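Example 3.2
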Amino acid sequence: MLTTSASRRITYSPAYTLVPTYECFNRCSYCNFRQDPGKSPWLELPEAERILKSLIGTGIREILILSGEVHPNSEKRSDWCDRLYELCELALGLGFLPHTNAGPLSFQEMARLKTVNVSMGLMVEQVTPSLGETVHRHAPSKVPAVRLEQLAWAGELKIPFTTGLLLGIGETPGDRQATLEAIGQIHQRWGHIQEVIIQPYRPGTHQSGEAPGFDLRELPLEVARARAILPEAVALQVPPNLIEEPEILLACLEAGCRDLGGIGPTDEVNPDYPHLQVDRLKRILEPAGWELVERSPVYPQYYGELSPRLRSQLIQAGYD
């Protein structure tokens, strides 16, 4: 294959998702992930160890610790935070690179998890207050100020961070612009947001509401909007499994997307939309002149900010 210029390279992270628990005190009407508190058994460490050991030698590098949210005032909150930490510690011990996305955390919880994560994440979704009267009516942690505070705390703690927008949940184009501008302002202050996901909402079989989903034909325009607003150093990501038409995916790349996120066996948030695996993605991308290349869950410009332990783990995993 001909050598591809850096401007035509699209990255992805070979990833596997561990779910500590699906229980969540939020009830977003579009969610296809959550279960009611007390209805989802927690992932035990021996089972997690069995899963992780089975992944050794498969090419998986990133372990996404993706959890439903235990209420901040719940008597189980401390145990839940301990479980997040223990799963990250277990993954590190087996040679993997953890990335935790577990909803809003306290400053102290984030500081503790920073020691066992190469990066972390939280979707802003939208900064539209009116969504608190519709899709987020029963989702206290989706208050925009809470999400933005989390991004600022991550910056203060120097945590390489992933965030993003969810499109098609009742927001307007002006709301999307405001969300991107808010993310951009936080990055301008702290310089820690490594990527922003431009994610179209797609209906699933477990949601409680009847939202129709985002019109995918508009997605390249939203990618272009994000590219025009956000600093060039912030990468843009779209999830290819949520885009059925290869032409739309390619149009998103031409509009400025340069990352396809974690690619693994299952999309836990969108279980009705299986991940497109690497071979299939290459068959879509390569004829159009794009090269799909692997990346770590922390972008290279942030390698130097990792602790010696995490930096050593990154090198051990084959990144430098």
